[in-house]
Design brief:
- It is found in: Endoplasmic reticulum lumen.
- This protein is α+β, with helices and mostly antiparallel strands and 349 residues long.
- It is built from 6 helices and 15 strands.
- The strands form 3 sheets. Strands 1, 2, 4, 5, 7, 10, 11 and 15 form an 8-stranded antiparallel β-sheet that branches.
- A hairpin with a 2-residue loop joins strand 12 and strand 13.
- The N and C termini lie far apart (63 Å).
Length: 349
């Protein structure tokens, strides 16, 4: 909900014995954050960030984060940390985001970059490993291609990266021989599919001439959308390739969830209306540590923050009603004055 800080937690399915914290940022040292975060100078029109806890908060200092300040701007800022590989490890990415403004079009997501990213030239074309958050609700996690996304500490989405996102087409280039096999298989499968749905009760038209008109196209029954990986128009190529290669290790060649050189985190996004605050960044390999960190940060301030938000909302509604009543009263008074003036002039005549 706009106006309430929401932690976006990418939590993995497996645990490791000891937590390793690769990156943690709470912005508790005032303006010294500028020594750790690099504003991109790729474009002079990029928007600027400031440190702020916003109009409402649970703790004025603890709730300070990076806030977008200019409407209708792209933003690009990043921070480095010691490079690491998450191969064979859990990967947890967590942060909080608060929208004080009415969000109609804009990003609230973060990106995780390779260690060699050019921070000064960061832009929409910069290579990144993971894009996670609002607009993109998914996050790669463990080496078994599973993911789990949590909001307010509660899982809202989990499953398999491979199957849920239909990424099989990205994992293997189709050779000419496979393409030829595919075309033949598609034709055969399409014919087999059609046969299952011919209307056996239909009869050929009496005036149908096979020599002139060709084979009679028997009428078809309504077909279900999917069956055994097939579609009414034939067979999906990605599904066919997946079944053809399901016993191979081709997935390991494409790094869907493992990255060798993770070394930076950043915000590279567009906002029509500014005011969003990003805070409590965390990258670690331990779910329990992330859970405790979330409780110690946003978990401690969310209650008072919501109370302040609710109080301000009531005050704004009260003020709006008073202004509306004043306008109505003013309109009535103006109407009476207009009537009086007309009546007075008529008597003078």
């Amino acid at each position: 909900m706009a106006g309430v800080r929401v932690p976006l937690w990418g939590i993995c399915m497996l645990r490791v014995a000891l937590a390793t914290v690769y990156f943690q940022e709470e912005f508790l040292d005032g303006e010294h954050w500028r020594n750790r975060w690099v504003q991109s100078t790729n474009d002079s029109r990029l928007g600027h960030f400031r440190l702020s806890s916003g109009k409402f908060y649970g703790h004025k200092e603890k709730d300070k984060g990076l806030q977008t300040t200019q409407n209708g701007r792209f933003y690009a800022i990043s921070a480095r940390f010691k490079p690491f590989s998450n191969k064979g490890k859990t990967l947890v990415i967590q942060y909080t985001v608060k929208h004080e403004q009415k969000m109609d079009c804009g990003g609230g997501y973060i990106k995780v970059f390779p260690a060699d990213v050019d921070q000064k030239n960061l832009n929409g074309k910069s290579q990144y490993y993971i894009m996670f958050g609002e607009f993109w609700w998914y996050n790669t996690t463990t080496s078994n291609l599973s993911y789990d996304v949590k909001i307010d500490g509660q899982s809202i989405e989990s499953g398999s990266i491979e199957y849920d996102w239909n990424l099989t087409s990205l994992k293997k280039e189709t050779s000419p021989a496979e393409s030829k096999d595919w075309e033949q298989t598609k034709d055969n499968k399409a014919q087999d599919w059609e046969k299952h749905f011919l209307d056996a009760s239909a009869s050929k038209q009496s005036d149908w001439n096979g020599e002139l008109d060709g084979d009679w196209p028997a009428s078809m029954l309504q077909k279900p959308p999917y069956q055994d990986g097939l579609k009414p128009e034939g067979i999906d190529k990605d599904i066919w390739l997946h079944h053809k290669m399901k016993n191979t290790n081709y997935l390991t060649q494409y790094d869907l969830s493992e990255f060798e050189n993770i070394g930076a985190i950043g915000l590279e996004l567009w906002q029509v209306r500014s005011g969003t605050i990003f805070d409590n960044f965390l990258i670690t390999d331990d779910e329990e540590y992330a859970d405790n960190f979330g409780k110690a940060t946003w978990g401690e301030t969310k209650g008072p923050e919501r109370e302040m938000d609710a109080i301000q909302a009531k005050e704004e509604m009260k003020k709006a009603r008073e202004e509306e009543e004043e306008e109505l009263l003013s309109g009535k008074m103006n109407g009476r004055e207009h009537y009086f003036n007309r009546f007075h002039r008529r008597n003078e005549l």
